[in-house]
Every structure is written in structure tokens, then in C-alpha cells.
Specification:
elongated; 136 residues; Four Helix Bundle (Hemerythrin (Met), subunit A); mainly alpha
């Protein structure tokens, strides 16, 4: 999406239409989030490489140190996976914004709602459908 050419985003009945500057701000926020997440993923992956590289050199460490490093490695791997999942959601939201599908619930096809998207720009479902999904 080029600057100044914001696509229309659906709104729920009774909501004010999205202004071009609001849509542009959402896109900017999503792009910034993607950059931040990519940097965090890279840093976390480097931390994992550092932890894995250190294990070969430390044959004489005690069991507590070894366990602590294993825990830290698992934590770093879980963190990286979480960041990758969120990055996927952000990239999906950006694709939907660029294709004109942004703001439409993937489940029911109704508008997600301006308030929800303002608070959670990577949302792909309206509140009702998301609650229904989480109850399953």
C-alpha cells in the first residue's frame, strides 16, 4: 500500500468510517511491529546459538549449571516461536490491509469493529467469533 492510497476498511453499523490517516497509522503500526519482531527473533536466535555453542566447551560444569542452561535454552526457543507466531499474524494483517480484506471477520464475514482493530490491529475475527473459537 503506497502512502496516501489507503484502502477502505469496513466498519460496524453506527461506527464512523475509517479516515485515510487512521488506516495509514494502522499500517505504519503493523509495519513497525513487524520490524521490531524480526529484530527480536534475530536476537533470540543468536542467544540460542550462543547457548548451544557454549555447551561443548564446558564439559566440567555441574548439574545445576547444566540444568539452568537447558531451561534458558528452552525459554529462548519458546520466546522465538512466540515471536514468529505474532510476526505471522502481523504479516497476515498487512496482506489483508493491502488486499482490501482488512477489518472483515474471517469467520462470519462481518466487520470486526473499529474499536477492536484500534486496540488489536492484527485481529482477524470479530469479538463474538473469537470468543466462540476460544471456548472450543
Amino acid at each position: 500500500m503506497a502512502k496516501g492510497t489507503a484502502p477502505a476498511v469496513a466498519v460496524r453499523p453506527g461506527e464512523e468510517p475509517w479516515r485515510a490517516d487512521e488506516i495509514e497509522a494502522l499500517g505504519d503500526e503493523l509495519r513497525s511491529e513487524a520490524v521490531r519482531l524480526r529484530a527480536e527473533i534475530a536476537a533470540t536466535e543468536q542467544g540460542i546459538r550462543d547457548l548451544l555453542g557454549g555447551t561443548a566447551d564446558e564439559g566440567g560444569e555441574d548439574t545445576a549449571d547444566s540444568g539452568s542452561k537447558a531451561f534458558e535454552r528452552e525459554h529462548e526457543m519458546a520466546l522465538a516461536e512466540s515471536h514468529r507466531e505474532i510476526l505471522g499474524q502481523v504479516e497476515r494483517a498487512l496482506r489483508r490491509l493491502e488486499s482490501g480484506e482488512y477489518g472483515i471477520c474471517e469467520s462470519c464475514g462481518q466487520p470486526i469493529g473499529k474499536g477492536r482493530l484500534s486496540a488489536f490491529p492484527r485481529a482477524t475475527m470479530c469479538v463474538t467469533c473469537k470468543q466462540r473459537q476460544e471456548r472450543r
